[in-house]
Design goal:
single chain, Aminopeptidase, 13-stranded mixed sheet, 27% helix, 29% strand
């Protein structure tokens, strides 16, 4: 079956690529496909480079989109994704990424970091043969709802709210800025926080906030459901440093996961820190970052 190549069109191709990601996703192991909420969250992130998405590559056949080469946030990184039966196309996707998705440095050299899962043995071999080096790896963790949820009480005076009940962009900006250790003085990019809620599948109901007695947002847990596959996806999770070590993140995350059950979720993707293992998340794979400069 012949493939036709074309470039990504931001306004019209977001949903077709989202359908491709959902259709070809494999439970826990992902089949070399990132979860659709990962793709959507990136598109609504303040740091996402919208102006260069025309460089994304799409390969199509009679069944629709068959392969995608794109970046997460900006040039210099590449995600290479195909239908499970077309894994042999990844060297061609890598060729394309080296031309269109690389970062051109001030000295004229080029850099590309490829995101790859540890079970993609053929792609890993190809990267090694081309002179890429592994720079970093992170665990992909999941929490199986069959384990049951741990119930922990909120500290006195703290409350749980959703964005349906209260949606203060300045307070959201404060907790995310400080929670991701950007410093004590948040910037004033409230429009960046507003665009983070613009995704078509963003849920104010599932987003869970722990509110401090003084009204500050102490912890923020964003939660997504796939809508087709049976998982929930956490992004982002942040706690203001002055409210850490109070169990707030585990409470917010647990509450958010519980709310996804009615949408068919049976497990949730978490993060790469010991915090998740302490909550009962288990490692199902690793994501590796391989980089080359030439």
């Amino acid at each position: 079956m012949s493939l036709i190549f074309r470039n990504y069109r931001l306004l019209s191709d977001f949903e077709p690529v989202s359908r491709f990601l959902r259709k070809n996703f494999g439970r826990s192991m992902l089949n070399g496909i990132v979860p659709q909420p990962y793709f959507e969250y990136a598109h609504t992130h303040p740091y996402f480079e919208h102006k260069l998405t025309h460089r994304f590559g799409l390969w199509e056949d009679a069944d629709g989109i068959a392969a995608v080469a794109c970046y997460e946030m900006n040039l210099g990184e590449a995600l290479l994704m195909t239908r499970p039966d077309l894994q042999h196309l990844k060297p061609a996707l890598l060729d394309y990424a080296e031309e269109e998705l690389c970062k051109v440095n001030e000295d004229g050299s080029r850099t590309l970091a490829v995101f790859v899962f540890d079970y993609e043995k053929d792609l890993l071999h190809d990267l090694s043969q081309r002179g890429y080096e592994k720079k970093y790896e992170e665990e992909i963790t999941v929490f199986d709802y069959a384990k049951g949820f741990r119930e922990n009480p909120l500290p006195e005076g703290f409350t749980l709210v959703t964005l349906e009940e209260e949606n203060d962009f300045r307070k959201i900006n404060d907790v995310l800025w400080k929670g991701f250790n950007h410093g004590d003085e948040p910037d004033d990019d409230l429009d960046g926080r507003r665009i983070m809620q613009s995704g078509p599948h963003f849920s104010k109901e599932l987003t869970t906030i722990v509110k401090a007695p003084n009204g500050e947002y102490a912890c923020y847990a964003g939660m997504w459901v796939d809508g087709v596959n049976d998982f929930a996806y956490l992004e982002p999770l942040a706690t203001d440093p002055k409210y850490r070590r109070m169990g707030l993140a585990s409470i917010a995350l647990t509450e958010a996961m519980k709310k996804t059950v009615k949408y068919g979720a049976t497990y949730c993707f978490g993060g790469n820190r010991e915090f998740y293992h302490a909550m009962g998340f288990e490692t199902v794979a690793k994501r590796e970052f391989w980089e080359k400069k030439w």
